[in-house]
Design goal:
Number of helices of chain B: 8
Shape of chain A: globular
Oligomer: heterodimer
Mean pLDDT of chain B: 86
Number of helices of chain A: 15
CATH superfamily of one domain in chain B: P-loop containing nucleotide triphosphate hydrolases
Largest interface: A-B, 29 and 28 residues
Distance between the termini of chain A: 11 Å
Strand order of the largest sheet of chain B: 6-9-10-3-11-12
Number of domains of chain A: 1
Number of strands of chain A: 2
Order of helices and strands of chain A: HHHHHEHHHHHHHEHHH
Mean pLDDT of chain A: 88
CATH topology of one domain in chain B: Rossmann fold
Number of strands of chain B: 12
CATH topology of chain A: ABC transporter involved in vitamin B12 uptake, BtuC
Radius of gyration of chain B: 19 Å
Distance between the termini of chain B: 19 Å
Low-confidence stretches of chain A: 378-383
CATH class of chain A: Mainly Alpha
CATH architecture of one domain in chain B: 3-Layer(aba) Sandwich
Chain lengths: ~375, ~270
């Protein structure tokens, strides 16, 4: 089963919105939707690190805000830091805050729910204080083109195709290599048609997207190409998935989430890994924050959005990550984030009021958890 | 001295002869092992021999000290006094890790498996093989298959199944196979059949016999005397912290064992 039911839900949603609103699948809207989704995706990935261990971090939304503000403030004329230094500072601060929550949870043996709830209040206060003090009630407008380009910049159409073809080629190579080496070792291999089906689906979706992205979507000037943000998500997704599926570090994350006592008896330093999870959550929320501020064009005390953290949890859980620990993949928040973006974007297009958007998002989240607990019984961990 | 020369179970008494030399052919020998928690005397002068290649059943009522004893051997806590010998050499076990390094593996009732991981991942948990920091799944999968095959565990369809999908007997098998794969010389099992149905129990008992036939010493705690008499080569009975009797299973009958468990003595020869 895996992620299939969630993908079916996504397709149903897309068809529904396309039927109700003819502009839904237009290139400019799809691009917009992807950029919207990217913030949810990164927040969801951040939360997956914690959910895998049966922990949660409710301060990730404010951490993202803090990261975005730091990046915006220090690339501003007043400070004039190079963009990479400001980005790095933002990510380091978020990682450190995550680590701090982790240490409090582990050392004082407190539930992460309460620690990070308290943390989210603290961060909110600190963030508002910084924004009000530094720019006297104004906030931090973006003055760095690198920060803007995170969500506005595009690859050229040629590079879009190169990227898409590279992704397909690398996926095919990895799948076939893995199949070959299992066969050579005399181990059971899944039927070959599965690889073919996966590759055909991947190719169809990516070529369709590349074509959409490469269609001119500008009204006055030509705008085309895949947003920078898309390959960046793929990059982070690739690294995180590799860590989780192919390294001891990832294996221990699953083990701790599955049975903490068993992990401890197997000699895994459980508490250290729990702190790592909080740090990775903070780091990833920091990345989300850079994209968030880039999309907003700046960060002020009025642009803070308390519902951001709920989207982090929602993206992870709608994709199929278990709230009880031990089950989840980094691809889940990608699908979850896209579903959230489709709902948000589609409901606006068919002119549903914003209050209803909240209600419907909530209903989808509730449905996702229900479907998840009823239908999902994956038989193998390693596909 | 706890074994009767006449082939009858004897009351070993509370005082053991700690000066007596140990038989170096024994895998594990305990002499005068005592443990108290504050004023509570949990183990009194326990002498126990566990040979390699045989199944020793440790029986006794609740609170008789069986778990306290195996936890001392597993390194969970140190005995207050007494000596342990491993293959004839005096040893001290301070931590579970030291026990594991000697080759003592304990399979507790909860089995310590991760339901969300597959059999291979559970077998290798904490000891994964890697190639350049990447998990070497192929090596681990082959070795897992081989270990299960060696132990005649044939009911598992795929070693890539999640442990959550396994039956109680299969889970027990995985936990034992994990110990065997790490070259355990002594496998201690705490109530391995307690939660199992008939066919599952048969599976686990067969596995215990296989272990012994491969030269591994097995120490099994059990409440179920049917199982004990089916699988054990030797029996050791505990009563209120004292090892009251031990010896080859032929020296015991069901009724004499029950009497030893409940009263600590046998009124007549069995």
């Amino acid at each position: 089963m895996g992620i299939v039911p969630v993908l079916i839900a996504l397709v149903v949603l897309i068809i529904y919105f396309e039927v109700r609103s003819s502009v839904f699948l237009k290139p400019d809207n799809i691009t917009n939707l992807f950029v919207q989704a990217i913030i949810f995706i990164f927040l969801g990935m951040a939360e997956v690190w914690l959910l895998l261990l049966g922990e949660i971090d409710l301060s990730l939304g404010w951490m993202a805000g803090l990261s975005g503000s730091i990046a915006a403030i220090y690339t501003n004329i007043q400070f004039g830091w190079p963009w990479w230094l400001a980005f790095l500072a933002a990510l380091v601060v978020c990682t450190a805050i995550g680590g701090l929550w982790g240490l409090i949870v582990v050392k004082l043996n407190l539930p992460s729910f309460i620690v990070t709830l308290a943390g989210s209040f603290i961060l909110e206060g600190v963030l508002l204080y910084i924004l009000d003090r530094v720019f006297e009630g104004g906030g931090a407008p973006i003055q760095s083109s690198e920060l803007t380009n995170l969500t506005v910049g595009n690859l050229t159409p040629t590079w879009t195709w190169i990227f898409v073809i590279a992704v397909i080629a690398v996926s095919a190579a990895v799948m076939i290599f893995r199949e070959r080496s299992r066969r050579a070792a005399g181990l059971e291999v899944p039927p070959f048609y599965r690889i073919v089906v996966k590759l055909v689906a991947l190719t169809a979706v990516s070529v369709a997207l590349a074509w959409l992205f490469n269609t001119n979507r500008g009204a006055f000037i030509k705008i085309e190409g895949m947003p920078f943000a898309v390959p960046m998500v793929f990059g982070v997704l690739g690294i995180y998935s590799f860590i989780l599926a192919r390294t001891k570090f990832g294996r221990y994350m699953y083990a701790i989430g599955g049975n903490r006592e068993a992990a401890r008896r197997a000699g895994i330093p459980v508490n250290r890994y729990r702190v790592y999870a909080f740090m990775l959550g903070g780091f990833t929320a920091g990345i989300a924050g850079l994209f968030y501020v880039s999309r907003l064009g700046g960060y002020s005390s009025s642009s803070t959005d308390p519902s951001l953290v709920l989207y982090a949890v929602a993206a992870a859980v709608i994709g199929g990550t278990s709230l009880y620990g031990g089950r989840g993949k980094m691809t889940y928040p990608v699908v979850g984030g896209i579903i959230l973006a489709v709902i948000n974007n589609g409901l606006v297009l068919i002119q549903i009021t914003s209050t209803m958007v909240y209600v419907i998002t909530g209903v989808v989240l509730l449905g996702a958890i229900t479907v998840d607990s009823l239908a999902r019984k994956s038989q193998t961990l390693l596909k | 001295m706890s074994e009767s020369a006449t082939g009858e179970p004897v009351n070993a008494g509370a005082v053991a002869d700690s000066d007596m030399g140990v038989d170096p052919s024994m895998l594990l020998s305990l002499r005068g092992v005592t443990k108290h928690f504050g004023a509570v005397q949990a183990l009194r002068q326990v002498d126990l021999d566990v040979p390699a290649g045989q199944v020793t059943a440790l029986v006794g009522d609740n609170g008789a000290g069986k778990s306290t004893l195996i936890k001392a051997v597993a390194g969970i806590w140190e005995p207050s006094s007494g000596t342990m010998y491993w293959q004839g050499k005096k040893i001290d076990i301070h931590t579970p890790k030291e026990a594991a390094l000697l080759g003592i593996a304990t399979v507790y009732q909860d089995l310590a498996l991760c339901d969300n991981l597959d059999i291979v991942a559970n077998m290798y948990l904490g000891f994964e093989s890697t190639k350049k920091h990447v998990l070497d799944e192929i090596t681990m999968e082959k070795r897992t298959q081989q270990t299960l095959k060696d132990l005649s565990v044939t009911t598992v369809h795929s070693v890539r199944q999640l442990v959550a999908s396994l039956s109680g007997g299969q889970r027990q098998s995985v936990a034992v196979a994990r110990a065997v794969m790490r070259d355990a010389k002594l496998v201690i099992m705490d109530e391995p059949t307690a939660a199992l149905g008939v066919s599952q129990t048969a599976q686990v008992l067969a596995l215990i016999k296989t272990l012994a036939s491969r030269g591994i010493g097995v120490l099994v705690i059990s409440h179920n005397l049917n199982d004990v008499f089916e699988v054990a080569d030797r029996v050791a009975v505990m009563y209120l912290g004292t090892l009251v009797s031990s010896g080859p299973v032929a020296n015991y009958t069901m009724s004499s064992t029950v009497e030893l468990i409940t009263t600590g003595v046998v009124s007549r020869a069995a």
